[in-house]
Amino acid sequence: MLSWRLRRLRNTLQRLRLSLGQRGWRGTMARIAQEFRPRPVLDERLPIEPIDVPFAPFSLPTATEAPQVSVIIPVHGKRAYTVACLRAMARHGAAASFEVIVVDDASPDDTSTVLAQIDGLRVITHASNQGFVGSCNDGAAAARGDHLLFLNNDTQVTPGWLDALLACMREERDCGIVGSRLVYPDGRLQEAGGVVFDDGHGHNLGRFESRDDPRFRFRREVDYVSGASLLIPRALFAQVGGFAQVYAPAYYEDTDLAFAVRAAGKRVLYEPSSLVVHFEGITAGTDPERGIKRHQIVNRERFVERHRAALRSHPSAQAPIETALHRYARGRILVIDAMTPEPARDSGSLRLTALFELLHEMGWQVLFAPDDGRATPAQIDALGTLGVQVLCQPAVRRVPDWLQRHGDALDAVMLCRAGTAATYLPLVRRAAPRARVLFDTVDLHFLREARAAAVVGQTGLQRQAEASRRRELALIASSDVTFVVSPVERDLLNEAAPAARVELLSNIHALHGRRAGFAARKDLVFLGGFGHPPNADAVRWFVRDILPRLQRHVPPLHLHVLGDVSDEARRELTGPQVTLHGRVDDLAPFMDGCRVSVAPLRFGAGVKGKVNMAMSYGLPVVATPIAAEGMQLTDGLDVRIGEDAQAFADALLDLYDDEAQWLRLSDGGLDNVRRHFSPEAAAKTLHRVLDDAATAAHAKTVA
């Protein structure tokens, strides 16, 4: 008993020493408080199947032939947990086809009798106990799926459990392993991937934190993920030799597998959208000095011996968690905008979301801070799929405070729009002195305001435009790089601010292609919310001055307006030929069903996302010269242009009934997007601006 107490004390002191090195005193005390804070046994918000209920037969929604995934569940007793695990799978299912293989590892209870009563289940029975490693390898040998999902029997899946893992595997380059976000049944986070230090000790990221904390809700590369829920291609599992038998019966086999997969040139990722409840320790216990758990210490020594060379590049056990967490990133970039992007809301949001995706593909760790501090759970999850960590309330109460604490770790900061840049640029220079500061204009406000003043004839607007010009030029002079979306704006700034570095980073659109022909379409569409003054003016002008000129067309042309609109504007503009739909979740029905997109803008600046979006679907556009500005478009080749109301109406009517012209403009628009507004074009600019900053960041990390 005395020796046991001494070992237990030694283990506790070692954990304390590691925590002090990684978290400091304040973080360590908070961690201890988390562990001992009173909490409910179950979180009622989690869809947890009851454990202690009488068994009744049921069926699993499994594939009989050629499943995409083979779910492998090793079990040794604890029948009630196994049944609850299978019931959760039956309840939630998946879009992907899957089979379930339970490896009954000589269970001492009635597991075999009960499993025989569950339809859609494949069972492998061991006469003698083979342990976790042997059971998993036997299940993999019998699997038929292209992918293997190893799942503990003391887990319960939730909606999206499997499809989210497959999406990550499909979307991430060189992805070899994907793991789920594991939570305790009381709702606390158990693991958001893991870090391995140079002495072989592992650290479960986020343990005992809130599972909803944005710090743990973004996709990222990690050292390992728990074998409690681990997806891997079946061919890759066979290539690396499966779970290494030297770790039998259990422990460190999942970490060893991750290192073997990385040595094969693949990556290990954590996918928070796959949420799995894990009743940790039900089978193996939690005491590292007793039972199966005792193998954890022995197997760590084996692991270190096998991977000594790889571990030399890992941080020490005393290194801060933040340092270990971001070591796979090429650099860290903070992006600040007025609010969280919503691609269905506006063109700027669509462009920023596309930039996030490109930065993630380039290997950057992206942090996003909305100046208003707000982000919905759906927005956090959507950006998390792009590898973006959202700094929002309540986790981050004030962005300036976060910058003061973490600015030294940033390699670049991108400030979106003039208002945001004016607020944060001085603070960024002080708090993040080594970060490259990028000013993303989105569009030049002073140019848009000057044109609006010319249209409405107000001297007050002209004075505002002059003030905006002075402010934006000062911001450009204080930034390392300025992004503009239009060649026209780039040329303007080259004259107004010749000493500044100005780069073209335009709108970014995927090519959807033309999916319906000329004859299958009718009506007109306008894209854009009324929160942007040029859009509100454009629709009013079209309805008042252009639509009456189209009356001679039989049947009368109908205009569909897509985007946020005020109740006042809805009452003013809705009529027999105009429908204001508001914001729509899916543009495709309109892009595929309407015959012409209209962009009757009389003022504005930058590149118009409404024009790009329509052309990306092969939908021809009739535009004003302002709407077509800076987009390298040619009237009659890839767009029709009308400057005044009559010219606009004439161009629209000429195009609407001419199939040959319509097809020419459809093809021309697609080609224009491909050449000037593709992700590849934007990626070239980002590489040119950020690659040397990433190199410096990597050198700092290695040092």
Count of alpha and pi helical runs:
25
Task: Give the radius of gyration.
Answer: 29 Å
The count of domains is: 3
Low-pLDDT runs of 5+ residues are none
What is the CATH domain class of the largest domain? Alpha Beta
Strand tally is: 25
The proportion of residues forming helix, as a percent range, comes to 40-55%
Give a written overview of the molecule.
The chain is of the alpha/beta class. The chain is 42% helix and 17% strand. The protein has three domains: 69-325, Spore Coat Polysaccharide Biosynthesis Protein SpsA, Chain A, CATH 3.90.550; 331-504, Glycogen Phosphorylase B (Rossmann fold), CATH 3.40.50; 524-677, Glycogen Phosphorylase B (Rossmann fold). The strands form four sheets. Strands 1, 2, 3, 4, 5, 6, 7, 10, 11 and 12 form a ten-stranded mixed beta sheet that branches. Strand 21, helix 19 and strand 22 (578-582) form a beta-alpha-beta unit. Helix 13 packs parallel to helix 14. The longest helix is centred in the N-terminal third of the chain and has 35 residues, at 2-36. The mean pLDDT is 90.
Summarize the topology.
Layout: H1 2-36, E1 69-75, H2 79-92, E2 98-105, H3 111-115, E3 121-126, H4 131-142, E4 147-151, E5 155-157, H5 161-171, E6 175-183, E7 189-191, E8 194-196, E9 202-204, E10 220-221, E11 229-233, H6 234-239, H7 253-263, E12 267-278, H8 295-306, H9 308-311, H10 321-325, E13 331-337, H11 347-361, E14 364-370, H12 377-384, E15 388-390, H13 399-406, E16 412-416, H14 418-431, E17 436-440, H15 445-456, H16 459-478, E18 481-484, H17 487-496, E19 502-504, E20 524-527, H18 533-546, E21 559-562, H19 567-573, E22 578-582, H20 588-593, E23 596-599, H21 609-616, E24 621-623, H22 625-628, E25 640-641, H23 645-656, H24 659-676, H25 679-702
Parallel strand pairs: 1-2, 1-4, 2-3, 6-12, 13-14, 13-16, 14-15, 16-17, 17-18, 18-19, 20-21, 20-23, 21-22, 23-24, 24-25
Antiparallel strand pairs: 4-11, 5-12, 6-7, 6-11, 8-9, 10-12
Helix pairs in contact: 11-25, 13-14, 14-16, 15-16, 18-23, 21-24
